[in-house]
Amino acid sequence: MPLTPLPAARLAALDAIAPAAPARLPLLEAHGRFLAAGIVASRALPGCDNSAMDGWAVRAEETRGANRDRPARLRIVDTVYAGHLPRRALHPGEAARVFTGAPLSPGADAVVRQEAARPTDDGSHVDLFVSVEPGHDLRRAGEEVMPGTPLFAAGQRVDATVLGVLASLGEATALVRPAPRVAVVATGDELVPPGQPAQAHQVFESNRLLVAALAREAGADVTHLGRSRDDEAELHAQLETLAPQVDVLITTGGASVGDKDCVKRVLTRMGARFLVDGVALKPGKPVAVARLGSTAVVVLPGNPGAATVAFDQFARPLLFKHQGVLEQRRVTRARLSEARHKQAGLTYLVTVAALEARGDGAEPWARLRPQGAGQILQNVAARGWAVLPAGRADFAEGEAVDVQLFEQPDFHPVEAP
Ligand SMILES: Nc1nc2c(c(=O)[nH]1)N[C@H]1C(S)=C(S)[C@@H](COP(=O)(O)OP(=O)(O)OC[C@H]3O[C@@H](n4cnc5c(N)ncnc54)[C@H](O)[C@@H]3O)O[C@H]1N2
Ligand code: MOO
């Protein structure tokens, strides 16, 4: 099968999955998910005029000219705690004791903090040592949010700060799409689980953990971890059991053309419909995406470096689509820290370790790491991918290319209004 260009393959792969039906989840369970509908403020924040300080609610005009030597003396007529209502309005010459967050007494229009005041010994009056303007140390109703204000659009990620806002509006739940359930199956006769003895020709199995953690970082609930030898019957049995239990099934290894590379063959025999099979991408060329019943399947190459890139380009978008969003990374131009030669027909995604400004006002330099498909260190603490597009073989040191940045992506709802 000819290799599909990367952009076309990424588009085709998205058909392997549909957004999950939205569900109302308790707020903490919605943490990390994406809103399935926009949020409009259902109440004002704050809900009423209230004190920003522990102190005294007053009529500002009655503090005019007050100082340490000539305090303004007002009669104490009420005490108002947060969560309680004032017993009465303030009339001229009156003050109410208030605490932070307590509703403002009708008639009051300012607060004097307690450090600038002292009650008389008999507790009947308070002396105010400062002159304040109307509105001083007050939080006005609706000053932060008015009812009806659109606050969040569909596709907004529910992070800690968003959770806080939703709770402050009185929401107990959020409408989000649930986490995709994921199974990760590693294949290979040479694999030995970490923690067991391994000879030099054996390989500690690392892709399952790597891929499971990558899936979690994309919002998945990794429910099953499987392992199979390069044995068609064993793999068939394993995939047949797992596929119906998950939304996305991810395999690693056995994706290429070797005698024992049987993953695609087994999937085909099981009735999988391939949307992508082989991409003009390095690392990650043998990656495939298929549909097996109602389960999306991503076949990752066994090489850890290739599995990482192929996951990023093919599995991660499926996991987000199930959650109702498309991820859009920031792209910046940067100069290559070294020349690179590549296969002209493939897009190379090369790990960028750092972006360094050199004070000349031009694009930053992208410090490249070696991109060995079989290597595993190059992706630790990376900033992004330098994109060396298909169609050319040689890239010079200092040449500017696109760099896809990992941090602070935008998320857009899949079904844009
Ligand atoms: N004649 C050709 N050979 C290869 C081609 C090709 O087009 N023609 N493609 C190459 C490319 S590109 C890649 S990438 C690899 C991918 O092959 P597989 O997906 O079949 O991977 P394996 O052969 O099973 O393993 C490759 C390598 O990775 C190690 N591995 C596998 N699974 C794990 C794991 N779970 N944890 C850690 N390491 C793992 C494995 O031991 C091998 O060293 O094929 C090229 N060959
Ligand atoms: O292109 Mo393979 O997936 O990296 O060596």
UniProtKB/TrEMBL annotation:
Coiled-coil positions: none
UniProt key word Repeat: no
Domain MoaB/Mog: start-end pairs: 183-321
Keywords: Magnesium, Metal-binding, Molybdenum, Molybdenum cofactor biosynthesis, Transferase
Residue intervals passing through the bilayer: none
Catalytic activity, EC: 2.10.1.1
SMART domains referenced in this protein's UniProt entry, alphabetically: MoCF_biosynth
Function summary: Catalyzes the insertion of molybdate into adenylated molybdopterin with the concomitant release of AMP.
Family: Belongs to the MoeA family.
Protein name: Molybdopterin molybdenumtransferase
Source organism (scientific name): Corallococcus caeni
